[in-house]
Specification:
Distance between the termini of chain B: 25 Å
Radius of gyration of chain A: 17 Å
Order of helices and strands of chain B: EEEEEEEEEEE
CATH class of chain A: Mainly Beta
Number of domains of chain A: 1
Order of helices and strands of chain A: EEEEEEEEEEE
CATH topology of chain A: Jelly Rolls
CATH architecture of chain A: Sandwich
CATH architecture of the largest domain in chain B: Sandwich
Strand content of chain A: over 45%
Number of helices of chain A: 0
Helix content of chain A: under 10%
Structural class of chain B: mainly beta
Oligomer: heterodimer
Number of helices of chain B: 0
Shape of chain A: globular
Helix content of chain B: under 10%
Shape of chain B: globular
Structural class of chain A: mainly beta
Number of strands of chain A: 11
Largest interface: A-B, 69 and 71 residues
Chain lengths: 128, 171
């Protein structure tokens, strides 16, 4: 029995145009379409999901895949994700998630640190 | 004359399916949701962007050489249409515009269009260390923290063989 992770990142860019009596969002004309990628992670071992309310920095090691979600449904508390010490530059507001393979090559692993502003609820899955 | 956009935003989401393989008595491999994870995972959000972006190149779908008015006196140099696809064969900054180099990245999306197993793409968010890997056919989406992650910090490079990408990098 072997594990695998299929993951997808999707986005819909939009622009707002104002017209007499209101305004409305349309598919962004600079992009012209939605974007989607769908792939199989390099991770072959899935850790147990972890949930909780953030209280202190979460440090993960030997990570090949990470999924982190801010499971708050509203409010301004957010999570910050720092991959491989590149800086805590990925922000997750309520309801948002980050899912990606990490490490510099197709077989490499790295560290992930999760910090926060406030005390948001979180869930994460680590793939190794 | 078209009206300029009064606002821009990106709706983004991730979807994760943890699976484990099972082999039937006939020897056929099938996949089911991994028992420990127990379900699929995902999330969704909206990143509010600046209405006026840093240039035509904020999406790969619009090439900086696509428009006549941007070609100056060198219009004759561009004979073909922009494909919306960028080839990655070396370390490449996704923001070649020096005027916006220190602008915070509010949203980043990169899709690896490579299909062969040796066409993985690696991504740096500090301009030096490549710690994110996008497998062939995969993609990456993230919201920047609004201060530390700046346009000049985002670079991509091939892992083994050349690959192609499409992207959005927005301030």
């Amino acid at each position: 029995m072997a594990d695998r992770i299929i993951y997808k990142n999707h986005c819909t860019p939009q622009e707002q145009l104002a017209f007499t009596g209101g305004s409305r969002y349309y598919l962004d004309s600079d992009c012209g379409r939605k974007l989607t990628g769908n792939c199989i992670s390099k991770s072959t071992s899935i850790g147990a999901p972890v949930t909780g309310e953030f209280s202190s920095t979460i440090n993960l090691t030997s990570v090949k895949f990470i999924h982190v979600r801010n499971t708050d449904t509203s409010g301004s508390d957010y999570l910050l994700v720092n991959i491989g010490s590149m800086g805590a530059v990925i922000k997750l507001s309520a309801g948002e998630s980050f899912s990606s393979d990490v490490g510099s090559t197709a077989s490499d692993s790295t560290t992930v640190a999760i910090t926060a502003s406030g005390t948001p609820d979180f869930e994460y899955i680590k793939g190794a | 004359m078209p009206d300029p956009a009064t606002d821009r935003r990106v709706i983004f989401s991730t979807y994760v399916v943890p699976q484990e393989s099972l082999v039937t008595e006939e020897g056929v491999t099938k996949y089911a949701i991994e028992g420990g994870a127990g379900r699929t995972y995902g999330g969704k959000g909206i990143a509010t962007l600046t209405a006026d972006q840093w240039g035509e190149g904020w999406t790969s779908m619009n090439g900086p050489q696509q428009y006549w008015e941007n070609m100056g006196s060198n219009w004759e140099d561009e004979g073909g249409g922009w494909t919306g696809i960028q080839t990655i064969s070396t370390a490449t900054s996704l923001n070649p515009d020096s005027a916006s180099a220190s602008a915070p990245v509010l949203f980043l999306y990169i899709r690896n269009l490579g299909t062969a197993s040796d066409q993985s793409l690696k991504v740096s968010l500090d301009g030096t260390n490549y710690k994110i890997c996008i497998p062939p056919k995969g993609s990456l989406s993230l919201r920047g923290d609004g201060t530390t992650l700046q346009m000049e910090d985002v670079k991509v490079n091939k892992v083994t063989s050349n690959t192609t990408i499409e992207f959005i990098i927005a301030k």
